[in-house]
Amino acid sequence: MNNTIAGKDLPLTEAVFYIMLALRHPNHGYGIIQEVEEMTGGRVTLGAGTLYGAIQTLEKKDWISVYSEEAGSRKKKEYLITDQGREVFRAERERISELARNAEKMDEA
Amino acid sequence: MKKFVMFYDKDKEVEWLNRMAQDGYAMTDFFAGLYTFEPCEKGEWQYQIDIGNGFFKVKKEYADFMEEMGIEIVKCWGPWVVLRRKASEGDFELFSDVDSRIAQYKKILILFKVVTAVELLCLIYEVYAGFEGVRIAWPCALAAAAFAVVFFNIIIKTKNILAELRERKGEVTDIKRSKNISPAITAGLLLNSANLLAADYIPFPFRVVLLVAALGLLIYGAMETAMRKK
Q: What is the interface pTM, i.e. ipTM, of the complex?
């Protein structure tokens, strides 16, 4: 996979956006759900199937990778965003900022 | 407690499993339509069904992930996985957004397209065998046709659900709903098939009565299908 961000990669879905954000530090499945719920004040509760599917896709795209496996006795698998993932997230952030900037125009006239 | 039920519609199956759990019966096993239930506290479990993460077994990765989420894998059957979670953990939904629901129904659509294609091949083969003089082939052909109708309806229903989800996403604006085929057709085909199979054991006048009933069902089904509003 190359490093250029294709147009079809954006916009990210809300679930993918928050999953990538929750993986700015090493995090495991349940931790992601909790953090996203916290960040959105309970508005976004990721379903297990949605999260599993997203993790599989993001791993395939090399936007996230496995950080640690079987640390200690628990078999919780931790993931972390990759450099390429950060690149995509940055592009999405710019797109959202543009949206927010343009949204201000609604108050002008 | 054991119950024999045939489900072709995952959503109806989930509804049924959850109703049973509400009544204090938790599904614990499944084999070819035979569901095993064990008593549980009323509403103790919530069930969901996932698809396409393995065949009769799931990847270790999937199993570990679900375990971490407090979700128990009750049974893997074909591409289907029956899951449950304690109701005390909150409402159990597998998919929280439209995109992942679309992905799920796309998998279901592919699955039933393959199954229907196989079913139609069987039907063609049975009709061929029937013309070659194999007596058992005709009732088999009728039964295969009945199943093909059932699967066709599932495909239509899944396509309609997908269209609705895409509309909610704003991808399409005017959704085209397709009509499904009346269940009376399925019943008529099956009755005809049973009548042919049991031909040697049913006295003649009854056979005629059954044949007329089956034809009546087919005609009624055909008319009902034609009159159905989109």
A: 0.84
